[in-house]
Amino acid sequence: MKAILHILEYDFRRFLRYKWWMLGLISMNLADLFIMAMVFTKMVNPNIILNYFQFFSPGITITASFAAAFTIGREINWEVRRNFSHYMLSLPMTRRELASGRMLSGGLRGMIYMSPLLLTTFIFLGFPTPLQLLTILGAMFLLVVGTSGLSIAIAASTKSFEKFVTARGVIYYLLFFCSTVFYPLKAIQGVLPQPLILLAQLNPLSSGADLIRSYLLGSPPFTTDLLQNLLVFSTIFTVSGAAAYIKIMERD
Q1: pLDDT for 49-75, tens place per residue?
Q2: Which residues contact 66 (CB under 8 A, 6 or more apart)?
Q3: Alpha helices, DSSP H only, in 70-193?
Q4: Three-state SS at 93
Q5: In whole angstroms, what is the distance from residue 147 CA to residue 186 CA?
Q6: Residue 226: CB atoms within 10 Å
Q7: Among 108, 45, 63, which Cα is nearest to 206's?
Q8: Phi and psi, residue 221, nearest 5°
Q9: How far apart are CA 105 and CA 192, in angstroms?
Q10: What global pTM score does this model have?
Q11: CB 187: neighbour CB atoms within 10 A?
Q12: Of 104, 141, 144, 193, which has fewest CB within 10 angstroms of its CB?
């Protein structure tokens, strides 16, 4: 744990260098919520969504945590391009400790970034019970750790920053818009092709947003499938990200 804590300290110091940039992004997310969502509330069919502000509030929390957790991949891609991993290998710790520390720091940074947005959601939609709060936080942690693993796997597989940015953009596009972050599942059924509807159902962003809505709005109803989707996503990409990071370190 001592080695992993050193990695966490290193990554958090880098993260906090951009505190004003982070505050700007959080302000932009809040602006999306308070401006776009309030405007759309007057435009959306009330038979589909009665109050778009309430519906979208959990969604913006999920998208923000996903995007923040992806920043660890950007940093690792920079390290790969600059051969900074040579320095990392000189540290008195194993490759597995390095990989574990990077995965964990990416997840914790995502949790910290999304906390103001989650608190805003609670203020306007109501606070969950202690058990529900623990479930929400646990689900969010699964999401951000899995996202960190996904970003690290992409970052470690290419030395081109342009390819990393392109891959990140494609993933953002697919997971953000083929999900229930912006609209409920019934609104896209019959509109999108069946494969994209299936993606929306299995999408970890959908599971995270719907989990919060199930506790705070009562719809959709809570099911264990929401947690199972997040657990599968987190397990697959945590293992993939750690394996990709260890491989790039071994290659060096």
Answers
A1: 667 888 888 888 888 888 888 888 888
A2: 110, 143, 144, 147, 175, 205
A3: 71-81, 85-89, 95-125, 130-156, 161-177, 185-188
A4: coil
A5: 26
A6: 23
A7: 63
A8: -65, 150
A9: 36
A10: 0.84
A11: 15
A12: 193
- N-terminal to C-terminal alpha carbon distance within the chain: 24
86-92 contacts: CB < 8 A, separation 24 or more?
86/252, 88/249, 89/249, 89/252, 91/3, 91/6, 92/3
Three-class SS state of 181: coil
Which tokens is 87 given?
Answer: 């320095």
Segment 32-39 shows an average pLDDT of 76
Domain ranges of the chain: 2-251
How many residues are there in the chain? 252
Round to whole Å and give the CA distance between 51 and 184: 12
Specify the 3-state DSSP secondary structure of 12.
Answer: helix
